[in-house]
Structures are given as C-alpha cells and as structure tokens.
Amino acid sequence: MSPTRVQVPPGLDEQRGLGPDWARWLDRLPARAGGLVEEWELTPVGDPLHGYTSLVLPVTTADGERAALKVTFDGDEESEHEGLALQRWGGRGAVRLLRADPHRRALLLEWLDGCDLLDAWDVEACEVVGALYADLHVQAPPQLRTVASYVGRWLDGLERHGRDVPVPRRYVDQALSLGRDLVADTGGGVRLVHGDLHYANVMAAGRAPWLAIDPKPMSGDPHYEPAPMLWNRMAELGGPAAVGSLRDGLRRRFLTLVDAAGLDEDRARDWVVVRMVLNAGWAVDDARRAGRGLTRDERDWITRCVAVTKAVQD
C-alpha cells in the first residue's frame, strides 16, 4: 500500500511566495500530513481546508469520531504553543484538543460543524466575543511567551523604520510611547491571551453556543485582545446598510467589547492604537523584504489601520 499523501490546497500553496522557509514546509507538508493520518489511524472525509499558516484536514478517528487534523507552518512563532493553550482551556470556551505532536506542529481537534460569527450582527458578535474572554483569560501556562516580549520587539522595529510607514507621524509616536508604557506596566493583569479572536475564529458547537479556535496564545494583559474585532469586517461599516459613519460603527464595536468583557476602556483603547500602528508597519516590512513597493492591498490595509486608530480616539 502506498503511503497517504494529502493534497495542499492552492490557496495555501500560494504562500510559497513568502520565502524559502515557506516553500520547504509546503514541500514537506503532503508527506507530513499523510504520515499523521496513518500513525493516528485517521480517515480523511473531506477536501483539505486551510488558514493563512495551516492545513486543516477533516477526518474521522478509529472510533468513528469526527475531528480535524491541523498542521501549522513551522516558522509561525505565534502559534507554536497553540496546543498548550487548548490543553489549558480544556474545552471551556474553546475547541477541544484530542491529540498533539508539537514537534510536527500537529493538532487533532474536535470537529465543529457550526457557523462562525461572520454573518452575525456585529454588535451581537462583539457581545459573544466579550463574554468568551471570561472563559479564556485564565492563568497562563508558564511556557508561553509574554505579550510584553512580543510587543517590545515589534516596537523596536517600528522605532527603526517608523518614518517609512505612511501613517501620520503623531500616531507612530503615540504607539511607541503607549506601547512602552503598556509593556512596562502589569496593571492590566497577566492572563492567557488568545491574541487573534475575531469573527472567523469563533464557531458554534453542539456542546456550547460558541467556541474559540486558532489562538495565537501569549501570557499578558487581557486588554490586548479587542483590536481584531475592529479591523475585520470593516467594509460593511461603510456600505449602504451601515448605521452611522465608519467611525460610529468602530466605536460601537469597541464599546460593546469593553462593556461585555468588563475591560478598562482607556487601557483597551491604548492597546488598539498600538496594535493598529504595528500592523501598518508590518505591511511596509513585508514590501521591503520582497524588494518592492507597497501593493494596492497593502495601502488599503494601512488606510484601514489609520481609520481604526483615529476612530477609537476621536
């Protein structure tokens, strides 16, 4: 019998353009995923899916249980300890971990066949996410990297190249100042932080109304969390069905999250500013590494980052 080989979805294979590390991982991925299928006695039951950094294969286990085999890019530092976070949550507020192989960056997860929050009214979605924070912000495993260690390094990069970022200089200076203050101050608490909780990373389940998936786990200030709920689904806030202006919509989301989660409004706002300016800087970094100018999509993204930064403060 020939070994199982899993086909890489075209959308994931496009990541070859991000560099040689990605190309090497994608070359290894079919055999790696196939080996896991055989070793863990899994049966593929659907076409492979993918995220930005991972392959997800629908499977059944030897016991006939539906599950998802997830294999993540080796170089994705932020998701390295995803299994530890899921183990710590133990299925409370998050997808349940069934098995893990940290060396191969592989996880076997319970299958969630419900919808996500992409089609929910955005205020309702913010209430759901704000309530989930209470389950997720528990004591962090000691192996996790800290929010402060990540953000401190990212701020160093922004400081070096901030003048090249097409963002008003006052926002760059503000992000640098606020960021340094936030990483030096533990007044916001130290908990297990999901890091990337947004509409597509929350799914309905039979055993719970909503569960979080795909964490980028860190140990640190829970006020770090809200920004992804603002920068996702922004197009609808400026569309014909929008209620009020883009600014009104973003502020409505932000305040709903803060109220539902019981967060300190000022501290959460400061983290939004820091994260959005850092995001704009990364778009410039990506273009620089590729030896080219900013693409139209990257310029649109930077415009979005500025809009969120402005909206939460005006």
UniProtKB/TrEMBL annotation:
Keywords: Transferase. One of its GO terms (biological process) is secondary metabolic process. Pfam families: APH_6_hur. One of its GO terms (molecular function) is phosphotransferase activity, alcohol group as acceptor. InterPro entries: Kinase-like_dom_sf, NH2Glyco/OHUrea_AB-resist_kin. This is Weak similarity to aminoglycoside phosphotransferase.
